[in-house]
Every structure is written in C-alpha cells, then in structure tokens.
3-isopropylmalate dehydrogenase (Shinella curvata), 369 residues
Amino acid sequence: MTARNLLLLPGDGIGPEAMAEVRKIIAYMNAELGAGFTTDEGLVGGSAYDAHGVAISEGDMEKALAADAVLFGAVGGPKWDAVPYEVRPEAGLLRLRKDLKLFANLRPAICYPALANASSLKPELVEGLDILIVRELTGGVYFGEPKEIIDLGNGQKRGIDTQVYDTYEIERIAGVAFELARTRGNRVCSMEKRNVMKSGVLWNQVVTETHKRAYSDVQLEHMLADAGGMQLVRAPKQFDVIVTDNLFGDMLSDVAAMLTGSLGMLPSASLGAPDAKGQRKALYEPVHGSAPDIAGKGIANPIAMIASFAMCLRYSFNMVAEADNLEKAIAEVLDSGIRTGDIMSEGSRQVGTTEMGDAILTVFKRLSA
Ligand code: NAD
C-alpha cells in the first residue's frame, strides 16, 4: 500500500488542542482501517518564531513540500504582536501558500440541521445548506503590481493596488470549480464585476470558454459579485459551487461562513496544480484563528479542524467513504445535542474539546465498522 504522508503544523493558541483530536482519528484509522498514514510534525507561526526566530523554518518548509498534504492548526496571538513584520506568525501561512503554489481555496459552507437556529438568517433559509466557494488565492488585486502609496507632492498621496488576471489563472481555477461541481450538484456560479472591471470581462470570457471546451455537462451561471452577495444572504440554498477571484472570494466566503453559525465549525482546503502523477499539493486548515481568549482552557471546538481533515481524506487521498463517515459523525454528534461552548444552545449538553473529539471518534468508529 502507498504511504500517505501528512505533515502536521499545529501552530499556536487553540491550534495544538484542535490538532490533538485529529491525531486520535489518524491513530484509529492506521490501527483499525489500515490507512497507512505517516505523520511528521513541524512548527509554524509564533511557536516557530520562539524556536527559530522565523515564522516557519527552512527544514519545515522542506517537509511541507515533500508531504502529500499539510494539516495546519492556527497561528498568531498577542505574544507575537510586536515581532518584526516579515517574521509575524501569518508570514508562515503565506509562505506555505506561496511555495506550495496553492492557487485554489475551497471554503464549504454547510449548515448542519442541528445548528440552523444559530444562524443570523431564518432557520428555513439555511437548514441543509451545502455550498462550496472556490476562491482564486494567488492572483488578483492582493498581488498585482504596481502596489504602492505614492506622494503626489501637493500634500496628497495616492494608494494603488492593481487587479491583474492572466488567462491561465482563470482557466485553472474554473477547471477546479467545474471538476468539484461534478462531484456535488453539478452547478457552478461564476462571480465577477464585468460591468465595471476589465479583469471581470476577461474572467467571464475565460470561464465561459473553459466551460464550453471541457465542462459543458456542468450547469454554468454568471452573476455580478455584488448581486451574488445579496443572493447569498437572501436565498443561499440556490448555489452549489461558486467560483470567484481573490478579493470577492475573500468577502463572499466570509459572508457564506457566517450563515452557518460559528467559526469553530468551518474547514477549508487550499490546492495546487496536479503534478505528473495527478497529485496536488494541498493544505487543510480551519477558518478560525488561534483564539487566544480561550487557548489552553480545553473548551475550543475541534470540529473545524476535524472537518478540515475530512476534506483532506476526500481531496488528497480520494478516501471518499471515510470522509463521508467523518462528516456524518460530526452531524450525528451535533444531532445528539452535544455542543462546545461556542455553539451551545438551550437543552444541549456542553462539553470540552477532548469530549467533543471523543464523541465524534466513537460515532466514526461505528460508521466505519
Ligand atoms: P479567532 O478566529 O482566533 O477568534 C475569533 C473568536 O471566535 C474568538 O472569540 C474565539 O474564541 C472564537 N473561536 C474561534 N475559533 C473557535 C473554536 N474553534 N472554538 C470556539 N471558539 C472559537 O480570530 P481573532 O480573535 O481575530 O484572531 C486571534 C489570532 O488569530 C490573531 O493573532 C489573528 O491574527 C490570528 N488568526 C489566524 C488565522 C490563521 O491561522 N489562519 C486566521 C485568523 C486569525
């Protein structure tokens, strides 16, 4: 059996607490399901700064490049607020994204029926919600040049950011969205601002051409990104896969995230281009940060981290049945009324990080038997 190499980067704050719950699942899968995971571990963020004076060491970067997938906890915290900009905790994550060339960010927004009441929208609008936002992650206005503030010499300054997209960047992110749609509801909605942006005109054209050339079996719709934002909070269940650029994706995925209740529930994946063997570099991480306000208290919700591992099983190792079972285990535990503090509601039983992880593992074991 081929080895499956995982690099675990727990990071700071609640990162290590949440990662501990994934470690238990990996140990069970190796012992009982013959999963064959080999795990290595490294430091990232503040913990790497404390040990090496950088946000991630060269040795750990090499491990990340060699791994089949990286599981990332969270980075940051007040302890490192004053460290130099280039070695701030987030620089570790940015370096990983850059060196692994992770251009596709996948943010599912799933509303578990048991949590429909925790949404800011009416429960009937979000119950059973299952959408996937595919955001372009390495191009667009966050990286385009020129990017500067210039002094105009008349007491005024000018801030400049540049939105740039080349054909290949749009083609490859559209391809990821269409391929993922085929494994779900077979529908893609592409969002841009072609009415006011040239890059939006090109985005629209290239997505349309990519669709016609290779994915005409998938249903494609185009929407202006501002209208898309409105539709996301008006009738979110109309969407299956949304594909959009870096800037709009940043905002729309946060809007979609909040439809589902809590930050502690939200996983994400970032994928690179396939290599000669069809294997993509990949990093899986919860959407939440290091939550310094609750770190070390044993009360963090590990579900976002566990659901990120489920995405890893699905997208890096094609272990679809195992990913389904892990996601079902999360849903069943929530249905049974077990909650961490962040998603607590009346009549439920409040537990800590370890107990939540154990409850999910128990159901996962039953479903896997
Ligand atoms: P945060 O996501 O860490 O926390 C926001 C709020 O949500 C806090 O009240 C926190 O207790 C709660 N929360 C988050 N995750 C939770 C979980 N799993 N269970 C229960 N409650 C949870 O965001 P923040 O407070 O803005 O940032 C804290 C630190 O994390 C900062 O240093 C920030 O830079 C960093 N950060 C890192 C990442 C990352 O590693 N990818 C992302 C966002 C923020």
Q: What stands out?
A: The chain has two domains: 1-103+272-369, 106-262. The domain at 1-103+272-369 is CATH 3.40.718.10 (Isopropylmalate Dehydrogenase).
